UniProtKB/TrEMBL annotation:
Catalysed reactions listed for this entry: O-phospho-D-serine + H2O = D-serine + phosphate; O-phospho-L-serine + H2O = L-serine + phosphate
Family: Belongs to the HAD-like hydrolase superfamily. SerB family.
Name used for this protein in its record: Phosphoserine phosphatase
Organism: Massilia polaris
Hydrolase recorded as keyword: yes
Amino acid sequence: MNLVLQGPNAQRDVLDRIAARANPERIVPLSDHAVRCEQFAYSLELKQAIELAAHTAQVDATFIEAGRTLADFKLVAMDMDSTLITIECIDEIADMQGLKPQVAEITEAAMRGELDFSDSLKRRVALLEGLDASALERVYAERLQVSMGGEKMLAAVQAAGLKTLLVSGGFTFFTERLQQRLGLDFVHANELEIVDGKLTGRVVGGIVDAEEKKRTVERICAQLGAGPQQAIVMGDGANDLKMMKISGLSVAFRAKPVVYQQADVALNFSGLDGLLNILAE
């Protein structure tokens, strides 16, 4: 196993101090704020101790098999809301109706896995009935931001020849614009029904829930002549777990506890580009 330690504000002396707990034969600098420890005696006790020390120092600690690189993969699949972007779009749309607290509470419970996703989405979308569709453009233009390190991560994986998939329990209005903006290969999301320029409070067609997200990753991998084990899947909520579990590498980004406890990699402090240090050659 290798150990990658990184944090956006981590100083080298802090990283070295945490690394010393593993007593590695070699520490390889990866950037000003990241190092890789190689050749040390791995144990669960060591892992727990280092993860605790790292979290206290606001550093991400990732144990990963030595030799794994981007070349092992063919696809990066990402959730959208609170993963590739910083907001939950439906909460911000609801804000235009003065209903953000009510909708955000449902969103949060669904992401923690406490509510059925499909039912919770229908409840939230129903509250948007009658809202002028121009509110969607306002959310995109005024509030939507790509998460820290997202554009750098995408540029690197695309340069390495990997395909990209944005699969979201959110809405096509946003995934399609992000596809154009970021050069994404595939997108899949829910479509809000709009009649006479207003939201009807309904979704067109089937809902992109946890099972559909998993099926989408499988389908795109098949199109690429790859298996799910050649996919990196990034997410933050309970509805991402099924697609994360079939992947070759699951990445929890600023995730709910139910997600980061099950993921291969947890990025609690680093940007999405932290993936690049973890899979660096």
